[in-house]
Design goal:
Blueprint (H helix, E strand, L loop, with lengths): L2 H15 L4 H4 L1 H11 L9 E8 L2 E8 L6 E6 L9 H14 L3 E5 L11 H17 L4 E7 L1 H16 L6 E5 L11 H4 L9 H11 L22 E6 L5 H13 L4 E6 L14 H17 L5
Parallel strand pairs: 3-4, 3-5, 5-6, 6-7, 7-8
Antiparallel strand pairs: 1-2, 2-4
Helix pairs in contact: 4-10, 5-6
Amino acid sequence: MSKTTSHILAALFRHLKSHPTIDQVGVQPYRTLLEKSAAAFKPDKSVQAEPFMIDSMEARWLIPETNGDRRVILYVHGGGFIAGSIHSHQDLASRIAKACDAKALIFNYRLAPEHPFPEGLTDVRTAYEWLTRKYENTHDIVLVGDSAGAGLALSLLSTLLSDRYPLPVCSVLISPWINLDCDRLSRSENKDKDPMLSMDILKKTADLYTDKPLSHPLISPVRNDFTGITPVLIQAGENEILLDDSKLLAEKLRAAGAVADLEIWEDMFHVWHYFARYLSEARQAIQGIGTFVRRHARLPG
């Protein structure tokens, strides 16, 4: 790790550790704090934002100036199933769109606890089906999600597989939360290394998300069979408490015969990509997403 990276990480850790938790402030103030923090990550002005509606859902196209391909990203934002929005994740989704030479669709799915499982997942399926109807076979659709959004993306893929519905050409899962039982070893090994998450936060948000068994295959989608799935890139940080979830998923995908690329980034934490404005490793990881997507989404112009 360079001295510059070390100093930036130390500053980020101090900043993140100073933030109040859900237990301390409650759900609505926690959401508000996340929205306010997004002001530090102003989206690139070269990416055009076009708001619209999918049924009753707020949605937004993010269209880079250089977009000339027929690739479309469906971006599912994170936030522990209880927070996050178009606004909080627009910078990250915009950066990924640019890296992939694609336009991205980001949307506000319903959040728990007001809208517990499966309502958020239903909205993700609605947005995906809307895209497939709009573009049919004219575009390559790529699925991308971070954290809980990556969990929803994997649950979506599971339902598409079981329903024999058309799949995205490839998917990218960033620091996926895909096993809500919270029973993997990395949760204890990395508990003091990951400034973004703690066991208490995971358990609290899981309780807010659902009162159903956490082993339910669409709540903890790592439990599903992935035979027939299209290529998947998983990016995880070496120091994040969800690391073992990513390792387990990669094993299951490969056992099912899938193309599964697992990248474990040295010294990185949960969804470090969010801090791409400040952290070179985040920008590099996003460029890696672009390389993966361009390799698998190759429709002729």
